[in-house]
Amino acid sequence: MALPFRRESSETDRMLALSDGVIAIAITLLVLEITVPEIPAGSPLSVLPDLVFAQWHEFFGFVLSFLVIGSYWVNHRRIFIHIERHDAGIVWLNLLFLLMVAFIPFASSVFATYPDQFGIMFLSGTLTLTGLTLALLWSYASRRELLEEGLGSRAVEIQAARFLASPFVFVLSILVTAFDPGLGILTWLLLIPINGVLQSRLAENLEESDGESEVEATR
């Protein structure tokens, strides 16, 4: 009875195909939430540019959600690059992550329709939970020793910090939005430098690990 499960634990293609499909659909649905403005009866066509620019919050919500989902896809891909095998826990945690990804278009639509305190908090809360499911997936894989051999503990820690960076920023956004919604939106921009620093540290760590491996191999 154990043999079929062993074969299943080494098969990740179908799980990754499902993940890529759900993420691709979620990204596509984002643009469908942007409505085409209607020119009021009796108004000239020249008011259309003003109506389009008045939808700045819809475009902003689309771009932000697209980039965040895209970054989650990149991080999801990086997780499964390092996972050599999986178990039932990985499968269900991955489904939980996809559940949250599939919900992002609705949260983005709420923000686009109500770009006030509630809309900002709702979208930030959804993105926080999505990021936490990804961090939980990585934590579970590392604790269950499902990662590839040779991946140093420091690299695992840096990756964990990367996966927690987004939830941290969005929780901060929720707290700031309670006092100043505009500033709460601006806190989302912190994702750029934080991810840049962590990516740089991860690259340096992996280069050092590769260098040490080559030295040991020549001895």
What does the model show?
There is one protein chain. The chain has 219 residues and is mainly alpha-helical. It has one domain. It has 9 helices and no strands. It has helices at 2-9, 13-32, 48-53, 56-82, 88-113, 117-143, 153-177, 181-186, 191-218. Helix 2 packs antiparallel against helix 4 (56-82), helix 2 (13-32) packs parallel to helix 5 and helix 5 packs antiparallel against helix 6 (117-143). The longest helix has 28 residues, at 191-218.
Give a summary of the structure in a few sentences.
This protein is mainly α and 219 residues long.
Q: Which percent bin holds the helix content?
A: over 70%
The number of distinct β-strands equals 0
The assigned structural class equals: mainly alpha
The quaternary state of the protein chains shown equals: single chain
How do the helices and strands follow one another from N- to C-terminus? HHHHHHHHH
Low-confidence stretches at least 5 residues in length (pLDDT < 50)? 1-5, 210-218
Please give the radius of gyration in angstroms.
21 Å
Helix segment tally: 9
Question: Approximately what portion of the residues adopt beta-strand conformation?
Answer: under 5%
Largest beta-sheet details: none
Number of domains: 1
Distance between the termini: 44 Å
- Apparent shape: elongated
On the 0-100 scale, what is the average pLDDT?
Answer: 80
InterPro entries: TMEM175-like
Main location: membrane
Organism: Salinirubellus salinus
Transmembrane segments: 15-36, 56-74, 95-114, 120-140, 160-179
